[in-house]
Amino acid sequence: MPKTLSFTLLVVVLVLSSHHENSWSQQTAQTKPTKAPHYQLMPRASRDGIGKFYQDREISQVMGHMGASWLERAGRQNEERPDLLIDSLGIQPGQIVADIGAGSGYFSRRLSAKVGQEGRVMAVDIQPEMLAILRRSLTAADISNVTMILGKETSPNLPPNSVDLVLMVDVYHEFSFPHEMMTQIYSALKPEGQVVWVEYRLEDPKVPIKLLHKMSRQQVHKEATFQGFEFVRSYEGLPRQHVLFYKKTSKDASAPTP
Ligand SMILES: C[S@@+](CC[C@H](N)C(=O)[O-])C[C@H]1O[C@@H](n2cnc3c(N)ncnc32)[C@H](O)[C@@H]1O
């Protein structure tokens, strides 16, 4: 090969690879927290994922607010039996319950009835557009015991030691910073508080949901225990979802209330 041609080829290869490296580092710069020991970043995301792995699981993309009507679909009652889910939570009137990833408010409205006027639902979402949809649905239902909170990817912005129950329906797999989120949720729970993972069953091929939006029971357990939670119980009565209850480790749970 003539020297000038091989030099030109070398320059083209270098320019192309530096462009690739640039877009890769831009992508990582957007998602990388200041200290990121818990995540692995892949050069290519899979179709519904963000290319970022936590505990060997690729994190899924966030469901956009344009899909809010799907959350309110009429068939959801029969497909998912939200009534059974709500009953399984054992909520007492007067409790403070956080609905993380509240979306359009499908569960916040139902939780509102359970906690009653003495209690409160903290409805957290990271999309202001979702909170706007939620606000309209609360107004339409004349509900006044739900507080809306704009969360961050790394925090639900809840005060420490303030919540009796944290409900996460179909959202945990979307957390782009699950470790940071769960550290904050751990601290927001009261000593005897519990956190509930509700995730579509990955083990069941008949559940018609994209793979990265499903989780196995084993994977939830692996991540929850890695984050310092202890398994309490599961509810097996839903047609499509796992319902897995965890609490703070016994040492923290028995600590005196600050
Ligand atoms: C699939 S929707 C589920 C909504 C609701 N839980 C339901 O089942 O009807 C997931 C919601 O979680 C929100 N979300 C994703 N990551 C979040 C985070 N780190 N903190 C709070 N909300 C989050 C999304 O904006 C979206 O509204």
Bound molecules: S-adenosylmethionine
Class computed from helices, strands and strand pairing? alpha/beta
CATH topology of the domain at 76-253: Rossmann fold
Strand content: 25-35%
Shape: globular
CATH superfamily of the domain at 76-253, please?
Vaccinia Virus protein VP39
Regions with pLDDT < 50 over 5+ consecutive residues? 1-34
- Overall average pLDDT: 87
Radius of gyration: 21 Å
What string gives the helices and strands in order?
HEEEHHHEHEHEEHEEHEEH
Q: Count the beta strands.
A: 11
**What's the architecture of the domain at 76-253 in CATH terms?**
3-Layer(aba) Sandwich
- Major beta-sheet overview: 8 strands, mixed
Kindly provide the name of the CATH class of the domain at 76-253.
Answer: Alpha Beta
Helical coverage, percent range: 25-40%
**What's the N-to-C terminus distance?**
76 Å
Query: How many DSSP helices?
Result: 9
Secondary structure: elements and pairs:
Elements: H1 3-31, E1 39-41, E2 49-54, E3 57-60, H2 68-71, H3 76-80, H4 82-88, E4 96-100, H5 106-115, E5 120-125, H6 128-140, E6 146-150, E7 163-169, H7 178-188, E8 189-201, E9 214-215, H8 217-226, E10 229-235, E11 241-248, H9 250-253
Parallel strand pairs: 4-5, 4-7, 5-6, 7-8, 8-9
Antiparallel strand pairs: 1-2, 2-3, 8-11, 10-11
Bound molecules: S-adenosylmethionine.
S-adenosylmethionine is lined by residues 62-63, 71, 100-103, 106-107, 124-127, 130, 151, 153, 156, 169-171, 174-175, 181.
Describe this structure in words.
The protein has 258 residues and is α/β, with parallel strands linked by helices. The protein has a domain of 178 residues: 3-Layer(aba) Sandwich (Rossmann fold), CATH 3.40.50.150. Helix content is 36%, strand content 26%. The chain contains nine helices and eleven strands. Strands 4, 5, 6, 7, 8, 9, 10 and 11 form an eight-stranded mixed sheet that branches. A three-stranded antiparallel sheet has the order 1-2-3, with no helix packed on it. The chain starts with a helix and ends in a 5-residue tail after the last helix. The site of S-adenosylmethionine has 23 residues, from α5 and β5. S-adenosylmethionine binds next to α5 and β5.
